[in-house]
Amino acid sequence: MPPTPSAPLSRAMPDTSDCLICEHCDTLYRPVALRRGETSLCLRCGAVLARARRLSVQQQLALALTAAILFIFANAFPVISISLEGLSNAATLFESVQALNHGRITPMAGVTCLTIILAPLLQVTLLCWILLFACRDQVAPGFALCMRTLEHLRPWSMLEVCLLGILVAIIKLGGMLDVHAGVGLWALAMLTVLLITLSGKEIRYLWSHFEARL
Amino acid sequence: MSDLPYAKDAGLVLCHTCSKACADLLTRCPRCGSSLHHRKPNSLGRTWAYLIAAFILYIPANLLPVMNTNMFGNASENTIMSGVIEFWEGGSWDIALLIFFASVVVPCLKFFALGLLLVTVQRRSQWAMKERSKLFRFIELIGYWSMLDVLVVALVTALVQFNSLSSIEARLGILFFGLVVVLTMLAAMSFDPRLIWDAEVKDD
């Protein structure tokens, strides 16, 4: 996808309604229309200014609903199971969180729960809620709150790190025990891809789309 | 390069939450209701505070054991570095490198890079502004991968629980290490990269 530099605004431009500001260096631009797959970059600092959205609302909703189903699978089934001389054991995501929940380490269980369960859960729920209404061209109740929460949650959702963590754990234990990947792992892997696709700039267009009706 | 207009000069403020360009007289974004700031409030002070706190906690995070492994009666305490060395000596040099990068290189790089950004911004340096901008975005991008070790310990601890035969327990080091990751993330979030470019504009 070729980057298109946006047209810089002249200093005399007083109209404030239709402007694009680079969040990394405060440069002011007049937005250019982007075609599918195109990205506009800031001329001053090189940051991404805007990205054309790749999916229609219907497609986004479909992916959000798929993500919801995958979330259930990823949490209901173990991500790894091990066996050792006839004994076996398996761990789900929540059991991993609980493993940290003892003694003075407890605060870490809270952080882990937020990053691998709560944040993704809220992301998926809010995305489904917003998109279910957006699909019928309606503004979801609590739209602004939902969108704001999504924006603030993004840095704390760490499914991709969790995925890598599971792979490292598999290799780490593989030397000593029989290790098997569980159903939860495959669901988690697909969920991660979907959440990356739907978060970030992909649904920001809804702000301007519904602006007049907020 | 410097003839590109700044939003500040045009009387506009960016809403951090919904990216709307708002008139700078407003205190709340008319679209999403978030509070508006020219620059993140008290950015340098907060970033220094988080960064220094993280740096202090990074010491016990490396010295204290993160995991206690008891395999068939052989008990051993693992720190983050000894875990890396174990992988390396066991022949999995790729995993050793991966963990080394996530747990040692990334946090150290964050301390160094954020410290550098803070000092240069305070000196109103005009040196390599575009590169420093890129450095900040890179730090933001890689920062949260340090959580890797915490998640590995959580998973391994949850799995290996065979009573007296074999068990793995999390130790206090992992708490400090997790806090370092959270604090460095907060430090990166409170730093305002636009301050880098403010050096270009004369104070009025």
Layout of helices and strands:
The complex is a heterodimer of chains A (214) and B (204).
Chain A lengths: L2 E3 L1 E2 L11 E2 L6 E3 L8 E3 L6 E4 L5 H20 L3 E5 L2 E5 L1 H7 L6 H30 L7 H11 L5 H16 L3 E4 L1 H16 L6 H5 L5
Parallel strand pairs in A: 1-5
Antiparallel strand pairs in A: 2-4, 3-4, 5-6, 7-8, 7-9
Helix pairs in contact in A: 1-3, 1-6, 2-3, 3-4, 5-6
Chain B lengths: L11 E3 L6 E3 L19 H21 L3 E5 L2 E5 L1 H10 L3 H30 L6 H14 L5 H12 L1 E2 L3 E5 L2 H18 L3 H5 L6
Antiparallel strand pairs in B: 1-2, 3-4, 3-6, 5-6
Architecture overview:
Chain A is about 50% helix and about 15% strand. Chain A has about 210 residues and is of the alpha+beta class. Chain A has two domains: about 1-50, no CATH class; about 55-214, no CATH class. Chain A is elongated. Chain B has about 200 residues and is an alpha+beta fold. Chain B has two domains: about 1-40; about 40-200, no CATH class. In chain B, strand 3 (about 65-70) and strand 4 (about 75-80) form a beta hairpin. In chain B, helix 1 (about 45-65) packs antiparallel against helix 3 (about 95-120), helix 2 (about 80-90) packs antiparallel against helix 3 (about 95-120) and helix 3 crosses helix 6 (about 175-190). Chains A and B meet through strand 3, strand 7, strand 8, helix 2 and helix 3 of A and strand 2, helix 3, helix 4, helix 5 and strand 5 of B.
Summarize the amount of helix of chain A as a percent range: 40-55%
Supply the helix-strand structural class of chain A: alpha+beta
> What percentage of amino acids of chain B are in beta strands?
5-15%
H/E element order of chain A: EEEEEEHEEHHHHEHH
Largest interface: A-B, 70 and 69 residues
Q: Which class do the helix and strand fractions of chain B yield? A: alpha+beta
General form of chain B: elongated
Mean of the pLDDT scores of chain A? 89
Let me know the number of strands of chain B: 6
Largest sheet of chain A: 3 strands, mixed
What would the principal axes of the Cα set say about the shape of chain A? elongated
Low-confidence stretches of chain B: none
Question: How does the major sheet of chain B shape up?
Answer: 4 strands, antiparallel
Rg of chain A from C-alpha positions?
21 Å
Quaternary structure state of the chains depicted:
heterodimer
